[in-house]
Amino acid sequence: MLGWHWFWTLVGFLVYIVVLIFLYFYQPFEDLFTLVVNGLSYDNAIFWAVVTIAIIGFCGYHWRAYRLYIVEQSSVERMVLASLRGSTFVAVLLSAGAALQAVQILCVYLLRDDFGLDREFGLRLAAVLALVILTGIFCIIFWLLRVVRTAPARSG
Description:
The protein is mainly alpha-helical and 156 residues long. 80% of the residues lie in helices and 0% in strands.
């Protein structure tokens, strides 16, 4: 990999980390996150099964990508792109699992005897819609990352 490709790959990766740190401390994002995970707890089996599968898949995917792109091909640029693809797929999996769990929570709420179209119903419905939109955004990002191709290695 040429020096400038290496440099811009590292700069892109650092910008990605800075954006994630910014979102961690940004209050509107925290409010959105609180709205999305409204009602999730330890007894939500669907979500925790998805989390377990996502963690195993994340580790397995990155181990495979490390062996392929770093050990065999010595391509840090391709490893970073593969890492972004794998991480985005895990984000799709987690947000879709949370959306499925939120739908289940909403269905249980609708089946209760004291059901009413009140604030709690609105919050649960908003959480489902927010998670579906978030899943769609992650799917678009994943598709864009699949379209991106790295430059072929130059010999010489």
